[in-house]
Amino acid sequence: METKGVKLDPEEVVRYLQEHPQFFDEHAGILAEIRIPCRHDGRTIPISERQVAVLRDKNHILQDRLAELIRFGEENDTLGQKLHRLAIMLLGCTCLGDLLQRLDSHLRGEFLIPHVTLRLWDIVADPAPPELAPVSPSARTLAEDLLQPRCGHHVPDEIRNWFGTGAGHLRSFATIPLRRQRTFGLLVLGSEDPQRFYPEMGTLYLTRLGELVSAASVRYRPSTGNGGTEA
Q1: Per-residue pLDDT tens over the stretch 173-190
Q2: What domain range is 148 assigned to?
Q3: Is pLDDT of 5 > 60?
Q4: 86 located within any domain
Q5: Which residues of 69-88 are buried (b: 16+ CB within 10 A; e: fewer)?
Q6: How far apart are alpha carbons 66 and 51 in whole angstroms?
Q7: How many C-beta atoms lie closer than 10 Å to residue 140's C-beta?
Q8: What's the structural domain count of the chain?
């Protein structure tokens, strides 16, 4: 910045105005004379008009953020209601077969999850449903190593094959360990949409889902020797 042969440092001008807030009180008329470039069409506009435009832009940003917060709140409330209904449904199950069938139906219908598979071990049922089919040591280790649900685009081939004929079309997965004191199962959700279960997504509600299914399924573990099932 240069005026009357004197070169001014813009930072010095800014610092001066910050240190002398009374400047525009003492020179109020200058505010009406200052004109600055408009960002949209290149014309110059009064500084007051520019301030209004800046405030309008900030208002739009705040409105967008508020709308986003409201949307997230509504989505969380809906998920909470669905989990509540799931908990009530699980409490009403009287046998393992009923639990597995109703869980699968609930996840597909209420949560709109197109593909659901589940494997349990150390649980006895007669007749044994497909969910009690043998699981490799590596799959058990994977479940035991999960401290929380994991979302992403890949799962081991063994787990992918649990989905049957549609496995090749799946592009994202949520892998949820089932445990009560120790791990005894794995619930896996799948989707053809790569963004349904992406790696960075939150897992709070998936964790709660795993806790509900674990608490309902553990009732069918063999007696631990104290006269009841392991809790």
Answers
A1: 999 999 998 999 999 999
A2: 92-220
A3: no
A4: no
A5: eeeeeeeeeeeeebbeebee
A6: 22
A7: 17
A8: 1
